Request: fold
Amino acid sequence: MRIRYFIKRFFFHLKNENILVVFKKILKTIFESNKINLDQLHVDENISLDDLFIKFGSDKGSLDGKKTYSYIKLKDKNKFSNYLEWINRANLKDFDYQLGHNFTPVYEKYFSKIRFKKLKILEIGSANGHAVASFFYYFKNSKIFTIDIKKSFNFFYRSKRIFFETVDCMNDLKVDKFLNKHGGFDIIIDDSDHTHPTFVNNIKNFYPALNPGGFYFLEDFKYADQDLLTIRNYNEKFGRKIMMQFTITMDEIFRNIENKKLFDHSILKKPILNYIFEKTEQVHVHYGEHPLSSLGILKKKDN
Ligand SMILES: C[S@@+](CC[C@H](N)C(=O)[O-])C[C@H]1O[C@@H](n2cnc3c(N)ncnc32)[C@H](O)[C@@H]1O
Reply:
C-alpha cells in the first residue's frame, strides 16, 4: 500500500515540478512517516516536568534517561526494538540512571506560571528531540521550534506544534533566514555545542529575536569556562599573557551584563552589548550539584 502511494505521489509531483524537488519531497514524506507522532502519543496529564525529561531522555532532569537507553541497547540490543518502546516503558523508576544536570527546579521556577499560555519556544540543539518532546507535554498550548546542525532524520518526533529545521547556528546567514521566518520567541534555550564562541554568537543573533518579557537560557557553559580558566590561571601564575581569541568566561560575561559593564569582545561588540544592557531586566546564574551543571538566565524587560 505504502509503496503504491509513494509511486503515485512521485508521478503526481513529477508532472508539476522538477525531479530534484520531487525527490526532496518524497524523502521528506518517508522520514516524516517514521517519526513518533506526539499528537497521538498518550502521556499522563499530571506527569511532572522532571519525569518528562527522564521519560524522553533529556539530561536536563535529575536523571539522564538517554544514557540509560544507550547503555541498555549496548548490553542487549533486543531489549527494546525502538525508541517508542523505550519511552512507553511502564515504570520510569524501574531502571538505573546516571545523574542528570537537574535543571528542573530552575526551569519550573520560571515556567510554572506561564506554562499554559500560548508561547513560542525555541531550543537551539535538539539532538533526537528529548527536551522538545518533554516541553511539548509541559507547555500544552505552545509551539515549539527547534534547530540542529544535524539532518531531520535524527529528530524522532513530529506534531502540529513542533517545527524542526536543520540550521547551523554558527552560520549567521542561515540563522538570519530562520529568524526572519519564525522569530519572536518567548523562551529560547541554547543547548547546542556548549563552546564559548557558540554561546556568544547565539546571544548576538538570537537575543534580539526574544520577545519582551521573554527568557533566554544558556545551558552547560561551565565546560567552556573551566577550560579557559585552567589555561588563564596557569599563564597568569607565570606573568604570561594568554594569546587566545576569547579570554573572558561566560560567568564573567553574565556579571558584566548584570552590572552593565562594557568589555572587549570580538563577537559581543559595543552595539550588541548596549542593546543587551538596555533590554535586560534580570540576570541569574545557577550552578547545580552536578559538577558541570550550569545555567545562565537572561530575562528581557517587558517593553
Ligand atoms: C547536548 S545535545 C542537545 C540535547 C537536547 N537538547 C536534550 O535536552 O536532550 C547538543 C546538540 O546540539 C547540536 N549542535 C552542535 N553544534 C551545533 C550548531 N552549530 N548548530 C546547531 N546545532 C548544533 C548537536 O548536533 C546536538 O544534537
About this structure: The pocket of S-adenosylmethionine is lined by residues 58-60, 123, 125-127, 130-131, 147-150, 168-170, 191-193 (CB under 6 Å). The first strand starts at residue 36 and ends at 37. The first helix runs from residue 2 to 16. The mean pLDDT is 93.
